[in-house]
Amino acid sequence: MKQIFFAAVAALALVACSGEKPNPNAYTINGTVTGADGETVYLISQGDTLASTTVQNGAFTFNGVAETSKEAKIFINRQLNDGLFLEPGVINHNINEQIASGTPLNDEMNELNTKFKAIVEALDKEGANEDSLSQVYFNMVEEISQKHAGDAMGLSFFMVNAMDMTKAQLDSVMALYPLYAADPQLKSLVEALEKAEKTAAGNPYIDVVGVDATTGKEFKLSDVVAKGKPVIVDFWASWCGPCRAEINNFLSKYAKEYKNKVNFVGIAVWENSIDDTKKAMGELPISWPVLYAGGRGADSPTEGYGIKGIPHIMLIAPDGTILARDIRGTAIKEAIDKALAKK
Length: 343
Prior knowledge:
alpha+beta, four-stranded mixed β-sheet, Glutaredoxin, 343 residues, seven-stranded mixed β-sheet
């Protein structure tokens, strides 16, 4: 403790002697972590690595300048990482306990986390009113979004609702706040919504080229579409729990019910390998062809369709017009019945 005190005094004296004023936007992150000595720790913000250092004796330090507050992440490995708000001042960050403190936004976030934890605990109690408690949570999110509109915390909570907004709504909010307009996640979301609008119901489908997961031969979505029948297209992945649930509980049932009336095809996306897809096909009641489209990236068919989450199930008319998108559960049957009634 004495060494830290004398180091701070020496630093102040050096500034005084040089005549330089301390930068009001300077920050220091004093991090502590156990079980990571010798490992590299990274400071990351908006996908960019701002700095890196090494953990020594359970501690690490980052120094820099934050012209505006922004979200950042301390990353050591998959088990040891946590987020914080990067802002001027001294930030104390305990990675193991996932607590950042010492500056206004980080301290306020700690208080909010305590309140959120109380809501979660209340939800776990027998007889809890889920609707009421959920409303309390979303009211808090809305209040924080408004209170901190334009800053890093406001952006963080704005993202909670951003996925449910239209492109026009996002554009209007991003136009108000430079921090939001520059955020890579929001910009990516806007781009996805633009693509989704171009492939919304009423527009022609986009062809997808991949390989047949069973034979390994080239397979295209156009090999199934325009064959005189409506087509259910299921964008899914082997590791995706909700995807597997849709196949087990709905798609397999509807494939039998509408046999010879509707074609079904799966498009495996965001996979690590085709072997994972094949393994899942052996575990699931899949009776339709599966087009393996590979992993993530600009060449994924999900990019062209503006799909941000899976499963994503759509219905395409015999002429190639998209009839419905993002349908789940019984909505799949409703869309099929509607399409067949028009024939």
